[in-house]
Automatic annotation (TrEMBL):
Protein name: DUF4283 domain-containing protein
InterPro entries: DUF4283
Start and end residues of each DUF4283 domain: 2-52
Source organism per UniProt: Gossypium arboreum (Tree cotton)
């Protein structure tokens, strides 16, 4: 996903198990662009994105 999104300051992706991943963006602009650019898919699976507070 990082290669697709090209975040300016990078993104850290952690596998949380049970088909869940945590995407940590290091610049708010990148996170906003990804959230507004959805829907996203990976290997023909829909990514459901939610911004954590």
């Amino acid at each position: 996903m990082e290669n697709l999104w090209h975040p300016v300051k990078g993104v850290q992706i952690r596998d949380l198990g049970e088909k869940r991943f945590l995407f940590q963006f290091f610049h708010a602009m990148n996170m906003d662009r990804v959230l507004k650019g959805s829907p996203w898919t990976f290997n023909n699976h829909l990514l459901v994105l939610h911004k954590l507070q």
